[in-house]
Write a structure and sequence with these properties.
308 residues; alpha/beta; Conserved hypothetical protein from pyrococcus furiosus pfu- 392566-001, ParB domain; 3 domains; five-stranded mixed β-sheet; two-stranded antiparallel ribbon
């Protein structure tokens, strides 16, 4: 956890209050996994020794209850509960739009964790939301810069698609694929996160309707794990059937259970033999000649074996 810049935050008229942990709830659309294992244990131990050094950010719960919805600091909140704390320092943001609140959640995870440390599903959701035109780019930049101040970092200007692509080493095609798979259901995105489904296959499945995706997941999963592997070609077949309006459970099972046709084996002929025996012949004539020669060979071999 980085040190908190009190001067910078107070200059922005943000008041820090101690809020009981049981009055805080996760952001309703928080789609990022919480720390676990050693990373979580280290944060719990740090909080036990030093307390929470960086305040979380929250807003009054829009559902009207006497609670606060966490925007930044879900892990600090969770680890504080484990550490046995009763309250946590928090900055309360008033009158945020839904889009602004979502940006606090997304951008703080990007800044604190790094894009490459996110799950594929988390990357897809962030990229899809980040490049949507939900509200002005200027307001988004203001929020990003405020989060950087919270983390003691320098602010930046501009946030174009090209700049973010360069920052995270993404090509335009990668961005397009991430935006596309963000349309997948949580279950199918889970297959991608677990490495059970390739991203390119996920792109094809993203064209299925929500109901079709739900049925596919139900048919092909047990305990959220994929039962039958889905190749990119099979996913494309499912997409075509969906576009034709004929994709149902039976058709899904047909595609998933269809065995790949093994390609015919090919035998190469050495250039010297080809020139000696087959020069000028068509492929059909070569095949007939080889078949006749093999027939004669095995008949001769069989006759010799019977004479032994």
């Amino acid at each position: 956890m980085t040190g908190f810049n009190f001067g910078a935050m107070l200059s922005q008229n943000n008041q820090i209050k101690q809020i009981p942990l049981d009055m805080l709830v996760p952001f309703h659309n928080h789609q990022f996994s919480l720390y676990d294992g050693e990373r979580r244990d280290d944060m719990v131990e740090s909080i036990r020794k030093n307390g929470v050094m960086t305040p979380i950010v929250c807003r009054p719960n829009p559902d009207g209850t006497d609670t606060y919805e966490i925007l930044i600091g879900h892990n600090r909140w969770n680890c504080s509960k484990i550490a046995g704390l009763e309250t946590i320092p928090a900055i309360i943001k008033e009158q945020l739009t839904e889009e602004e609140a979502q940006t606090y959640v997304d951008e703080s995870n990007l800044i604190q964790r790094g894009f490459n440390d996110l799950k594929v599903s988390e990357q897809a959701r962030i990229i899809a939301r980040r490049y949507s035109e939900m509200f002005s780019q200027g307001k988004r930049n203001d929020i990003i810069n405020e989060i950087r101040v919270l983390n003691g970092e320098e602010t930046s200007s501009g946030n174009s698609r090209e700049k973010v692509a360069d920052e995270y080493g993404l090509s335009r095609n990668t961005i397009a694929r991430l935006v596309r798979i963000s349309k997948l259901s949580d279950g199918i995105l889970g297959w991608i996160d677990k490495g059970q489904l390739a991203v390119r296959a996920g792109v094809e499945l993203s064209y299925l309707s929500a109901d079709e995706q739900s049925e596919l997941f139900e048919i092909n999963s047990a305990d959220d794990n994929m039962l039958m592997k889905i190749s990119e070609a099979q996913a494309r077949d499912l997409r075509i059937l969906s576009a034709d309006g004929v994709l149902d459970g039976d058709e899904m099972l047909k595609v998933l259970s269809a065995k790949k046709k093994k390609p015919d084996k090919k035998v190469s002929i050495a250039p010297t033999l080809y020139k000696k025996y087959f020069a000028g012949l068509s492929n059909e004539e070569i095949a007939d000649t080889v078949a006749a020669a093999l027939d004669m060979f095995f008949k001769s071999k069989e006759k010799g074996d019977n004479n032994d």
